[in-house]
């Protein structure tokens, strides 16, 4: 340990930031008193969650909350209230050991969507206090059609809308899951929540985190907070959806943007939607397909808050 003891604290912290894995860092605390005091100062962290647990049960899952959210859209509130109300606390409990988190990446064990076999849906959502934007890319393996593309789109519109709603609910559950972490770590500048299957990504940048904290500090609507708790997710605001579908490829692209003063339309909105789509998937495995989808006809839809 003599050589290691000669390294300055700043260099040790640089190493810890490169390690980033929370489980590894917590083990490092047992190496020495010095490590024990320095590990909590790590600024860049990766928290890999084996399973999401709650304060009331060690077998709770995001799927239960996803199912519960769908019931809110279908049944009256008293029916949903019969389901157990559980607050997810596991990430906040683990991260309470760290004092200076600036960048946090949380990885869940699996995706939240349970779709029919042969269906693939990927999404990327950006949040502040609530949803700002969400880009959803989906396709069905082995897609076939008889050449009547308009009929094929119309026939599958309900399915594609359900893909969109499922992705939005999954994103809002993930956002809600880390509300305590955001509240307890005021120095955080970026938050990313993914899953090992690569299904969806929630991103909250510095400005979004600031808005989220400010909103919570000034929140006076207790009923809204209680309703969020019962749902187990953040409410999705009214939004405008731009849907593009390419039946020959069997692919669909949906860009969702929250609106406060009515739906935005026009050339400027087209460009912004395209930029969001390319930001989400332009550099990934689906980049070429997304670029082709941007060339096809758009279908505009509006969605109320839920």
From TrEMBL:
Any Pfam family the entry gives: F-box-like
SUPFAM superfamilies, sorted: F-box domain
Residue ranges of domain F-box in the record: 1-49
PROSITE patterns: FBOX
Top-rank taxon, per record: Eukaryota
SMART domains: FBOX
Name the UniProt record assigns to this protein: F-box protein At1g22220
Species annotation: Theobroma cacao
Underlying gene: LOC18592180
